[in-house]
Amino acid sequence: MGCPGRKPLFFFLLFVLMYLPGALLQEAGPVRQRKPFFERLRRLEEQFQRFQEAALTHLQGIASNYNLSFDFEARFQSLAHRSQAVALALNQSQATMQEDLGHLKTWMRKTQRRSWKVDSRLLALDTALSERSRQCARERKEQEAQRDALSSLALDVWALQDALAHLMPLVQSQGARLATLEGQLQVASPGTAAPGVTPAQPRSSSPSSPQLQRGRQALGAPPEPREPPLDFIRPLQGTHKLPGPGSQRARTPESPGENLAGSLVKGVMLPKMSTSWSWTLWMCHLTVCNVGPVLVFPNASTKNVVFLCPGFLTSLRALSICSWIRTASGHLGTLLSYATEENDNKLVLHGRDSLVPGSIHFVIGDPAFRELPLQLLLDGRWHHVCVIWTSILGRYWLHVDRRLVATGSRFREGYEIPPRGSLVLGQEQDNVGGGFDSSEAFVGSMAGLAIWDRVLVPGEVSNLAIGKELPMGVILMLTSAISVGRFVQRVNCSCLQLCP
Hints:
Elements: H1 6-27, H2 34-188, H3 210-220, H4 230-237, E1 264-265, E2 268-269, H5 277-285, E3 293-297, E4 306-308, E5 318-327, E6 336-339, E7 347-350, E8 359-364, E9 369-373, E10 383-390, E11 396-400, E12 403-408, E13 422-425, E14 444-452, H6 458-465, E15 474-477, E16 481-484, E17 489-492
Antiparallel strand pairs: 1-2, 3-14, 3-17, 4-13, 4-16, 5-10, 5-14, 6-7, 6-13, 7-8, 8-9, 10-11, 11-12, 14-15
Helix pairs in contact: 1-2
């Protein structure tokens, strides 16, 4: 290392050597010039002393700097040792990391092999599920084909019954003619033979013979109507419209809108089935008793309204409404109306005079509705009606006199009818508890009204229609009426046929 103070010192010594000979020559001169010389020499000596002190100080600084540089080398050596230790530690860490990476690669390979196995199993499972779904689809197609075959068989059976019903009058007339002929034979030959005729031996086909009696029973009296067995009807009800007991009604002049070509059931339009006198006869001779009070709505006044309380206490995801109804006008009017602050048509069964006679709108949460055919109710007689709905798949059913008249699906699927609304009979609400219109009023009689928060099965509907028993779980009845309109009459009848 070079010292910055050495070059000035060198020049200073050179300057002194050059200056001293001149000073000595001046000292040999005259005496009168010695004082300035000594004075200068003194000053020069003082300057030299100061320079010496400065040089000494500078040399001490150089020495101290040399010691500092020696400390730097020691420190550099310490740092070198430390760097070697850090490099060794890094090498060890790198070796450990390489080992961990090797373990990780091994684990990744094992995981990949396991994932390949899982993928193969999932692929096999997917193939099995696809095959199972195809098999289920084939089974469903086979079941639908069987149902179609059963429905066609049922239609053939009912067509045969219809043909037999047409043949009944002819058979009865033939039986009457046979009876008349037998009477004439008995009058012509009371026991003796006519002249010229040999008396014949009594035959086994005499009026008192068992064979003739069996023939009379076979030809003269029509057989009682037989119903298809329930285990034969139930598989078909989910696919096609099936008539109820008797499956036929009397032939009467059809009113406008009464000629129904068929009912749409799961997208299948069934042809019109002619009915026999047996169903009407069965309904006429059926006596229904113990149905509770009968409400008579004499006219279309907006004052004729009945309030049911307390209404629906909880939300409804299923509903069954059944009642005996007898109408006295050319249209049905409003049977039931349920309104809330949110919507005045949460649940409505109403028919205006502008609709087709006998048609009624089944509304759940306006504006969604289905049009139900109730032309059978326009004959002025008592009929049992059940309207059933469930939010599961939006299925609904309409039963009239134990018969399934209409059904469908996708109607308010997943919907809930809210609670705490206003429930009235005989009028359609345009606001909660009011806004009535005479064109939507019900004119007629109503009895045995009951509401359930579940779906009634066909057996329960049939029992209700014959007055056998009331299914469990009823939430509202006609006895819940708290307010009856001005002209509405409450009549207590032991049986419906005895009501005025």
